[in-house]
């Protein structure tokens, strides 16, 4: 892709088109969403509810979907959903039944092996044909530490510091196979060119990894890394991400300018390398479509690159988002056309991921 | 009573058996390849689709081995995607218990089981060396006996988590707002390797819990499988060796209070189907040639000899050097504990037949298990099953992803005609196909 799709054919103002994401979490962001007559609560467990919502979102032209997760099970509170599928498995289940929408499962890195994390995300990118990514998260609760039983819970700053090392080593491992490492050279009998496979020899204060990855370089080179910046520590770590999700708060504008300043210090090339979205609960069914459209427009006016929509109910709100909200945003020139394909990085206007190990000339 | 044959399809990953140079060989990594083989297996009403695991690229003499197929996706993610495009086929993931925590394993496997409607299986393996451990922050090298202790404890805890919900704990009552019975999923365990507690967030799938597969050739492995696996996976392809293994493993079940049909014995085998027996023999010889190039023959000989043999000509005689025990010339694959007698056998065979080094490797190491016309192969498979050399087989094709097309189109119908293989699936879950209780 030579030009990022989201900058082509922009609104009349010349403004870059807004990115739209959507969240899958149980039956929706509202804890009681599963109790509606329209919901079969057991369809949360089979993945059917998620598949239906993602397909609706894709048909409307929404750019990507995130899948919520935590390491520990949801707390067993009356009135709330107390089960949750592993987000990575659910995202992979959705991949073959969708074609264009990006898929970003939440993966917590505090207790899981970084080597497995990068291999799983690379695999999601392979099975989805270049639509893979992840929301990197940490587990700093005592409950999460107890289900694993290996380490005592660490403070947020420490777990996020470690998460940044995991993000870093993941990208290194994705680069550890050059794109053209598989040569299948029958003449010499060599399947791979080992000069194009690289040890990463990564050292951090808490782990080290030799490499290379076991998975050939994913289609996007670097699947998209997102961070949900719900704490100050997460906001700091978000500087390393491709996509930052900023929860709706009074600090949104100041957080946004903080991120922009950080990105400026990384140089002009970095600007297109950080997509900042406001992450908000939307309930068009309860609040009315017009109000939700206005809510989104206001956020975009405030300077974010787009909005991560958290539907109150997947069954009630997603059809309205897909059928009413998104077309209105499109009519106003705020977002691109529905049928755009290509890689997730392309959709988000992110730079092509260069491989740090590939030599420019051979 | 006529026994029913069980069949599984292996997607070949890292090995020298995949003939990647064949014009019909496709991608080892594109999802379309996995999908083709899985759909073929499901068309053939196979029990399950099986994926192996790799956690470090193999090395020969300190450099990455470059002759064989290498590079593969992560199993559970691929299988979760395959759950979307298959309806009855079991989905078996090899996942290491050394570098994964029981809670994570239980959660990921239970998710696959839920998403597939009860079709998940876990092939429990352990890591064997510090070489692999260099890619991981913990687990690392464990003494062989400790590995089994840890694996056994992992499996016990994973099962405990899967069993932490009673069948009626999922209430999902929209009126009262109670999603689960209070206390559902609560667990605590205090073992030698793990001390954990909390709440498990997934109720049992339609098959109760995922199927457990275990590879077991060693005494410890056989015992481990007999104590708790649903399927044992082995490499005893010949009839006599199969019968001996079968008898030994089934005899171990009683002491765990298990019936003989509660553990299915499914060796990994290769199959070459031809129009006639003679055609198949010729095809098999050609495939063996493709599988073992000169450089590959040298590497396989180095694994046995435990030393650098690069000065030798693969088309010349066998090295006169004596093998080295416990060498690390090759890394990331299982070596030979006692190479002496094998080297002696190779020499005897080479001398008797006038074989070169490469010819010896081809003939000693890469013999296909079932070779013949569709009728010959169907008969051989059925004989192994009826006469207790196996309960079925895991088929390892030499081509990706079309390597089982012929088998499914030509051999499966003959097994069905004989009334020893299903014409349709027994039910929605993998336990249904394997005839295992929930």
UniProtKB/TrEMBL annotation, chain A:
It comes from the Bacteria. Pfam families: Bac_luciferase (PF00296). Belongs to the NtaA/SnaA/DszA monooxygenase family. This is Alkanesulfonate monooxygenase SsuD/methylene tetrahydromethanopterin reductase-like flavin-dependent oxidoreductase (Luciferase family). FMN binds at residues 69, 106. Keywords: Flavoprotein, FMN, Monooxygenase, Oxidoreductase. It comes from Kribbella solani. One of its GO terms (molecular function) is oxidoreductase activity, acting on paired donors, with incorporation or reduction of molecular oxygen. Residues 50-293 form the Luciferase-like domain. Transmembrane segments: none annotated. InterPro entries: Diverse_substr_monoxygenases, Luciferase-like_dom, Luciferase-like_sf, NTA_MOA.
TrEMBL record, chain B:
It holds the Pfam family Bac_luciferase. GO terms for molecular function: monooxygenase activity; oxidoreductase activity, acting on paired donors, with incorporation or reduction of molecular oxygen. The keyword Plastid does not apply. The keyword Flavoprotein applies. Residues 23-387 form the Luciferase-like domain. CDD domains: Nitrilotriacetate_monoxgenase. Gene3D superfamilies: Luciferase-like domain. Keywords: Flavoprotein, FMN, Monooxygenase, Oxidoreductase. FMN binds at residues 94, 148, 218. Belongs to the NtaA/SnaA/DszA monooxygenase family. NCBIfam families: FMN_nitrolo. This is FMN-dependent oxidoreductase (Nitrilotriacetate monooxygenase family). It comes from Kribbella solani.
